Amino acid sequence: MRAIRFLGDRRVEAFEAPEPRPAAGEVVIAMRAAGICGSDLGFLYRPSPAAASEAPSAYDRWIPNAAGVIPGHEPAGVVVELGPGVHHLAVGDRVACYHITGCNECRACRAGWMLHCRTYRSYGWQRDGAFAERMVADAKSCIRLPESVSFVDGAYCACGAGTAFQATKRGAPTGGETVAIFGLGGVGLAGVLFAKAAGARVIAVDPIAMRRDLAGSLGADETIDPLTANAVEIIYDLTEGEGAHLSIDYSGSSAGRLAALDCARVWGRSVFVGERNLTTIDPSPQILHKQLTLHGSWVCSWPVMDELVQLLACDALPLENAVTHRFPLERINEAFRVADSGE
Ligand SMILES: [Zn+2]
Ligand SMILES: [Zn+2]
Asked: Ligand 2 center to residue 19 CA distance, Å?
């Protein structure tokens, strides 16, 4: 079957991979949609082969990205083959995969947080993933998609939108609150949608005009270009000098994180979601003196992804409107170039 691999330095190559076979407890999924995640770009697509060994990423320090693994960790498709012992899925089921598998026995796994299993294996990182015609998945990681939830929605929930949903739950915005969102990539745009669905007023900040426009079309009440205006000052102006009730940084940039802390009001909440980049924080003025609650939020659990899928089925959240481009597998080089450009 066709699959792709990263060569480093922004190069992607198609190759002929062995046909995947399911072991006990596994299924084969024919891919219908697979999302590109910011972590694919930052950790796998952009770095040179040498850079990975010179400066191991946070992921690498924990469990190394396995060489030769087919990338892609936002899988959605149709079950085409069942391994022995799989009874709760059938051939033809439409599914998306929670993208992390674990031992299924430890406390983290039993809580659905396979992400924190000490033998964590993620599709596209430590085991073959979604940028291929077919993929082997643990039946336990599959979430059946209701008819009204598209494959694109399902793939989006597997990492990007699931991550934003969990971060929104951590920040817990409510009606009447102002939420400032920094970074409007795939995760941040879903975050705009969820904060609006919670009834909050949303101020969305990103240097790329096309992303701000998209945030506006998804319901953001105000958008700010941080390169031409002081986002923190504007947020104070828009909140009668008090600041945002909740700020969420999806950018992972030092500037985004600092602005998220600085725009939050006294007794406010902040959530850090975006990855990478060192950031120097002055804890007294930026956190302590504001009585600020600061959450770190990383991906989501299986139950939270499932909750999001069920929410999409019963509540018509236009998640797919945040998806700007669709490419067939043969044009994945172009897909990565577009994703890398930020537009
Ligand atoms: Zn991801
Ligand atoms: Zn475990």
From this structure: 28
Q: What is the DSSP string of 31-71?
A: EEEEPPPHHIIIIIISS-HHHHHHS--HHHHHSPPPTT---
Q: How far apart are the first and last CA of the chain?
A: 30
The per-residue pLDDT of the chain, averaged, comes to: 93
Domains of the chain, CATH where assigned: 2-159+300-341 (3.90.180.10), 161-296 (3.40.50.720)
ipTM value > 0.95:
yes
Question: Looking at the CA of 140, which ligand is closest?
Answer: 2
Model confidence pLDDT, tens digit, residues 44-91: 888 877 765 665 555 555 555 777 899 999 999 999 999 999 999 999
Report how far ligand 2's centroid is from the alpha carbon of 30 (Å).
27
CA-based nearest residue to 268, from 298, 304, 250, 295: 295
Q: How far is the CA of 88 from the centre of ligand 1 (A)?
A: 26
> For residue 190, which ligand has an atom nearest its CA?
1
Name which of 39-53, 162-176, 259-273 the model is least confident about.
Answer: 39-53
Ligand nearest to the CA of 118: 2
Burial class (CB in 10 A: 0-12, 13-18, 19+), 209: exposed
